[in-house]
């Protein structure tokens, strides 16, 4: 269950003042309610806001507040995420929320925040998994297929976006190497060094060895695209089984979009195969998924390269689990993380893919 950690009355008063100052011609704003979305994750603070205006208008809004202490992801560029989302909203056919404003002054909420219009839709849940209960399981096979295809189409539109024309070249990190696999690997190396603090993690360490040995030498310039990062249907909102919003851009980067497809496939396996479940009737196979994506973006599919990026996606997801274990202890939801950082469903799936020893009895966090 999602919990509002801020005092709702204080937060409503702060946002009322900010909205009034931001839009002085609307006769003043009153925030009537502040809540949090059900099932919201740990990558940032998200507030649902209902506001009424002196001119008679009303708005249903979402406020995302920049993290200030523990972060799941490595050095998240909160302002950069807003720039990406705003560019996609204004200039592409990627389904996005309407991006309304960015505030970098921390005096209002204690940290920078962004404002967007709320989208009516529902995301397939992680806990309990959408493969076990919820609106996806309850749907017909035809509606499930529509949902999956719509989500895949939305991801392909991200990859087809003209990132240069959108002014998103600021995402490049030339100090880490060439655009593509060089920058992604170097950035993940830094993230892992920060997350692990030198503590051994047998599956992650073995996966790193595999990734270094099997990495492609370079990413051709024509294959560099805008990469969403945390690519999965759980980070999309659906209305009537059509994708209406692509969310959660903490890992946005420029690179080979096979990194998104690999992550997408890895998470798909996590929600079905690793729970001992058959794929939901109506969902395409993983091979069909890859073929449809390749046809949509106009690219020949290299199975070995896709296999690399699927493992690489699993590696990055395993680092997320290490950070999550620390966070759950830090905020008091777990007294002790035990072996969660080394033994979880993600490390088990990596061990299965790479034929490594299992890290322990499987626990589905």
Describe the structure.
This protein has 365 residues and is of the alpha+beta class. The protein has two domains: 8-117, Phosphorylase Kinase, domain 1, CATH 3.30.200.20; 135-354, Aminoglycoside phosphotransferase (APH), C-terminal lobe (Aminoglycoside 3'-phosphotransferase, Chain: A, domain 2), CATH 3.90.1200.10. It is built from ten helices and nine strands. The strands form three sheets. A five-stranded antiparallel sheet has the order 1-2-3-5-4, with helices on both faces. Strands 6-9 form a two-stranded antiparallel ribbon. Strands 7-8 form a two-stranded antiparallel sheet. Strand 7 and strand 8 (242-246) form a beta hairpin. The chain is globular, with a radius of gyration of 21 Å. It comes from Iamia majanohamensis. Pfam families: APH. Residues 37-263 form the Aminoglycoside phosphotransferase domain.
Brief summary:
The chain is of the alpha+beta class and 365 residues long. It contains ten helices and nine strands.
SSE topology sketch:
Elements: H1 8-22, E1 29-35, E2 45-53, E3 58-65, H2 78-91, E4 99-103, E5 113-117, H3 135-138, H4 141-160, H5 181-196, H6 202-214, E6 225-227, E7 236-239, E8 242-246, E9 253-255, H7 258-271, H8 286-297, H9 303-330, H10 345-354
Antiparallel strand pairs: 1-2, 2-3, 3-5, 4-5, 6-9, 7-8
Helix pairs in contact: 4-8, 5-9, 6-9, 6-10, 7-9, 9-10
